[in-house]
Amino acid sequence: MTSADVARESGVSRTTVSYVLNDRTDVVLTDATRQRVIATAARLGYTPSAAARALRSGRSDLVLCVLPNWTFGPAIDRLIEHLSTALAAHGLSVLVHIRHGDRPLDELWRAVTPCAVLGLSPFAEADAKAMRQAGIAVVGTTLDDDPRPDVFAVPQTSIGALQADHLVERGHRVLAYAAPDDDRLAAFADRRLAGVRHACARHGLPAPHVTTVDLDVASACDAVRAWREQGVTGVAAYNDEVALAVLAGLRAACLDVPDEVAVVGVDDIPAARVATPALTTVWQAIDAQATYLTAAVLAALRLAEPPPPQSCDVFHLVPRAST
Amino acid sequence: MTSADVARESGVSRTTVSYVLNDRTDVVLTDATRQRVIATAARLGYTPSAAARALRSGRSDLVLCVLPNWTFGPAIDRLIEHLSTALAAHGLSVLVHIRHGDRPLDELWRAVTPCAVLGLSPFAEADAKAMRQAGIAVVGTTLDDDPRPDVFAVPQTSIGALQADHLVERGHRVLAYAAPDDDRLAAFADRRLAGVRHACARHGLPAPHVTTVDLDVASACDAVRAWREQGVTGVAAYNDEVALAVLAGLRAACLDVPDEVAVVGVDDIPAARVATPALTTVWQAIDAQATYLTAAVLAALRLAEPPPPQSCDVFHLVPRAST
DNA sequence: CTGAAAGCGCTTACAG
DNA sequence: CTGAAAGCGCTTACAG
């Protein structure tokens, strides 16, 4: 089933079929011809060969979304869903690739020949350059603020700052940071910790006590006891899972939450809401992020204007009983 | 950077380059020539054009993995990671696509021209047929037992049965099933419930009381009260999130776990271990599943023998304090 | 042992 | 308004 079939069946040339199906308004064709070709193509169930098209034009309708190797949260899931839907409206299909190990990225994008690559974790500069040279639209991600329109900024420091500010507002003066026991998360954890640290300095408080907390009660209990000896009363956890472990540790150590120690997480996972006490957490406006990302991809493809600068307002604190 | 460049630089024809780079052992070439071509290709950083290759051969090195629209758990995440690594050893790249809405699948696979499509939720028969006709290796999934080697069976009923058997073993005679409030999960929830139902019948117990439980305390509390009036003492929850909500409901209703009511979940998410009381749950042997899937894909591509029949032993009960 | 040539299906200058 | 032809980069019979 090729464009030649559609041409023969419609009584026109392949050229005309191509013009019609690609909606080339700059070339003059009778409406009757257009209708006929479209109808024939539909009747025959014709789909242009993506391989041939990619070979010819050097690009495809595929958007490659490269994910880092950290655990998917429901957030990423929803982000991709939004993105897929929005880009589908422009005839683009989103394909997700989960990066693992240090296998070279170029093998992949060369194999896919996407029109755009969207990295949800930072790219190596060499990779980004190579892709751009190959004519691929590149949208990268940074964990910090970044004004460039082709960079998606998820300012992790803001998350940490939000957590710390909230604890300070609740009257806590000695804070701790509960870090995750997972190397893949280190880059994120470090940025969030930097946010907590910065906020402490801003409020004239001592630097936060940093402890790695495994996702089990014993580890959390140890951490809690150490913190108590240091006078800690407020804990910012890397995410809700770590925060729930901390809550369990506090329970095991018979400490009252939030009167003796307050805890704040990040993500607002379902378990946070039904924890005892319900967990205060930071919620991300995934929809707003997805909208920005979509606009950034379309702009990089010159299919739309550059997106308006990203709103800083993508994080919200959800106060609950744990603080 | 094309194969012509490599040919010129190596002083051979494009034919020879193609033979060497595709490891055609059936054609006789001097070792010296092979070495030279390989070295030149490496030096020039040559990567064959996937588009041209796909156009020529009608297939690519891409394996398209189609995911359903339900929330990713860490399980899916790890499954894909295993799969990607194993298939990469055969020169195949895994690309993930998350299906949403009812957008037609054929648009996607025609655009990607993968050599294989792996569905992690069941395919429509028409879709599977169309893909096979296009020469694509298809590996499907079913929620039930299935002996076919090109079908990945995740017998959801076994999960429900495992939960129910455990509760019965702990002495419970009146069971409830806590269903999720998410349409996308209905197919899974129904199969798991069928497993619980079947187990109850097998043990000569009344059918389980089925209640939808939202992920909040109020909803869970209502469900718990209703169950108590029906004499329920054992609850099988769709997954750990629902189970944690049930635990919260029981706490709100001042019922003791496990003495008055026992709860068992599915997935073993991190929060399950640190819940109060720690949540009994069902754990899936993702590694075994990934190994089977890999073998199934390779077999469908005729790159390996059909995999041995799937072990039924992919689920394990993790007993903790909640039962 | 190696090379010239055809052809995969498409798009697009160019010539009617 | 429409068609014949070139060419994207590859693989593979076929002819030396």
Describe the structure concisely.
The structure is a homodimer. Chain A is of the alpha/beta class and about 325 residues long.
Q: Structural class of chain A, please?
A: alpha/beta
Give the count of structural domains of chain A: 3
What is the number of strand segments of chain A? 11
Shape annotation of chain A? elongated
Largest interface, C-beta closer than 8 angstroms, per-chain residues? A-B, 58 and 58 residues
| CATH level-two architecture of the largest domain in chain A | 3-Layer(aba) Sandwich
CATH superfamily of the largest domain in chain A: Response regulator
CATH topology of the largest domain in chain A: Rossmann fold
| Overall mean pLDDT of chain A | 90
Distance between the termini of chain A: 64 Å
Tally of contiguous helical segments of chain A: 13
State the strand order across the main sheet of chain A.
2-1-3-4-5
Would you kindly provide a written description of the structure presented here, covering whatever features stand out?
Chains A, B: InterPro entries: HTH_LacI, LacI/GalR-like_sensor, Lambda_DNA-bd_dom_sf, Peripla_BP_I. Chains A, B: This is LacI family transcriptional regulator. Chains A, B: Keywords: DNA-binding, Transcription, Transcription regulation. The structure is a homodimer of 323-residue chains. Chain A is an alpha/beta fold and 323 residues long. The first copy, chain A, has 3 domains: 3-48, 434 Repressor (Amino-terminal Domain), CATH 1.10.260; 59-154 and 286-311, Response regulator (Rossmann fold, 3-Layer(aba) Sandwich), CATH 3.40.50; 156-284, 3-Layer(aba) Sandwich (Rossmann fold). Chain A contains 13 helices and 11 strands. Chain A has helices at residues 3-10, 14-21, 31-44, 50-57, 74-88, 105-112, 125-133, 156-169, 186-202, 217-229, 240-252, 270-273, 286-300; strands at 62-67, 93-98, 116-119, 137-142, 151-153, 175-179, 209-212, 234-237, 262-264, 281-284, 315-318. In chain A, the strands form 3 sheets. The first copy, chain A, has a 5-stranded parallel β-sheet with strand order 2-1-3-4-5, sandwiched between helices. A 4-stranded parallel β-sheet of chain A has the order 7-6-8-9. In chain A, helix 1 (3-10) crosses helix 2 (14-21) and helix 5 packs across helix 13 (286-300). The first copy, chain A, is elongated. The first copy, chain A, starts with a helix and ends in a 5-residue tail after the last strand. The model of chain A has no long low-confidence stretch (mean pLDDT 90). Chains A and B meet through helix 4, helix 5, strand 2, helix 6 and helix 11 of A and helix 4, helix 5, strand 2, helix 6 and helix 11 of B. Chain A binds a DNA duplex (16 and 16 nucleotides) through helix 2 and helix 4.
